[in-house]
Write a structure and sequence with these properties.
With about 230 residues, the protein is of the alpha/beta class. It has one domain (about 1-220): Rossmann fold (3-Layer(aba) Sandwich), CATH 3.40.50. The protein is built from seven helices and nine strands, in the order βββαββαβαααβαββα. The strands form two sheets. Strands 6-7-8-3-9 form a five-stranded parallel β-sheet, sandwiched between helices. Strands 2-1-4-5 form a four-stranded antiparallel β-sheet, covered by helices on one side.
Length: about 230
């Protein structure tokens, strides 16, 4: 059963003469781990933003968990995203002046779950990510890059989202760190049953996932021309 069901999507940036994306159909089943490959500038981040509800298409619909997120108000989209979607960014986007626990607590507050026991849940997540629980009280800007990666995963899954979106999170990593990072994501998928959409330009990563999709194969907007977005 599809967890993501997007149809007849067309998205163009303001002032652009041509759309960045024109996709007839994009579906991902619940529990799948999908690799979305595309060259730099092909529109991967745009598509992920549509799936996350941070952008809305000019035409078409994006249904996540049978909810048309484009039809929601901005406030309702934010709430839906916080409760059902985890996002791992390329630069991790941790707030440097907050502790690890503070970053996790903020993510829970956005989802309306501020009263849950963050220290207990955070300890479980850090242990699953092979980090020492005492890191909860360390500021994010005092962490190594490897520790920041794992804390970024913890923050993305703290609210137990049904969908986990990852946008080029391994582009700056060496091959060993990259493979370890992806294995952690896949292990979390196996533990929680969440759905993963992982976007990258690196074809070598496809082997980690259930299914691989070439964005150029489904995006009619880039057929016959080179996208600059």
């Amino acid at each position: 059963m599809p967890l993501i069901n997007a149809n007849n999507l067309v998205f163009a940036w303001p002032g652009a003469s041509d759309p960045t994306l024109s996709i007839d159909d994009f579906q991902v089943n619940a529990g799948e781990a999908v690799f979305l490959r595309g060259a730099s500038g092909s529109g991967k981040s745009t598509l992920l933003s549509l799936l996350a509800g941070t952008l809305t298409a000019q035409t078409g619909s994006v249904q996540i968990l049978d909810t048309d997120i484009g039809a929601l108000s901005a406030r309702k989209r934010d709430q839906f995203r916080a409760q059902h979607i985890g996002i791992v960014f390329q630069q991790f986007n941790l707030l440097p002046f907050l502790t690890v626990a503070g970053n996790l607590r903020l993510a829970s507050r956005f989802a309306g779950r501020a009263n849950r026991n963050i220290l207990s849940r955070g300890t479980e997540l850090l242990q699953a990510l092979r980090l020492e629980p005492d890191l909860l009280e360390r500021q994010a800007d005092q962490l190594s890059v490897g520790q920041q990666q794992r804390v970024a995963i913890a923050r993305a899954v703290i609210n137990e989202p049904e969908l986990l979106i990852a946008d080029e999170p391994t582009s700056a990593l060496d091959s060993d760190a990259r493979d370890n990072f992806i294995n952690l994501l896949i292990n979390f998928r196996q533990l929680t049953g969440c759905t993963i959409v992982f976007a990258s330009h690196d074809r070598q990563l496809a082997r980690f996932f259930d299914r691989s999709i070439e964005l150029a194969d489904i995006n009619k907007a880039t057929k016959g021309r080179t996208s600059n977005v």
